[in-house]
Structure prediction request, 269 residues.
Amino acid sequence: MKNKKHLYTTGQFAKLNGINKRTLHYYDEIGLFCPEYKEENGYRYYTCFQTVQLELILTLRKIGLSIDEIIRYQQSPSGTSFAELIAEKKCLIDKSIQELLNTKIFLEQKSDKLSMSLTAEHGKIASITLPEQRILLSSPITGAYDDEDFAAAGDFSLRLKSVFGLYDNFGSRIAAEQILQGNCHNYDCFFAYGREDVEIYDTIRPAGVYLRTFCIGGWDRLEEVYGTICRFAEENHLELSGYAYEEGLNEMSLQERKDYITMITIQLH
Prediction:
């Protein structure tokens, strides 16, 4: 045997590579990763060069390969089979990364809406400037929330899931001219915000100045809030245009219906 000062005991090698000593014993027993030298008394010794092999095994385990898969590869290794194996796992990793990013975006959207809900005041109107925003639209709805509207909502949910995987709740859109005529229940369609990293969208909500307010309570209070918006616009010589966008803010933390918060954003001409 070589000079032992160039070798590592099982405990030393385990500590060097940040794994459990029992794991090295197990890997040796099943033939996955064996020490360079074994003495008759059962002592195992590893070399520093084996760290690279162990690191590869640990990495393959991290990306989802089973022990049997790694052993099968070791029994008949080749550059081609390894390249194919790595390419397949890279695709899986990329998919997992994208799923995590989608989850992060979803949680950020929920967090932003909940933060807004904490400061929302019923009927209080503010003027805000918004950037251009991609929008996805459902098939037309009436606002009666009958079977046809629920069917449109179901189809839209499936579409959003296919586009985004995870998506924030969608809202309702109503034309400003309907609001001005007092037809606050004649909705146009459901809508959802697009994303800059996803090219699929139906239209653009233009950049510009918008009025924003909140309705706290059931949907029966929306007509009152739209009346407040119309009076505010008239008194301040403002012209409503385009569409009003309704979004629920606190579905995730709602305890009673009277606490439901709808955010209304409507474009000014």
Q: What stands out?
A: The mean pLDDT is 87. Residues 127 and 211 are 5 Å apart (CA to CA). The chain is about 45% helix and 20% strand.
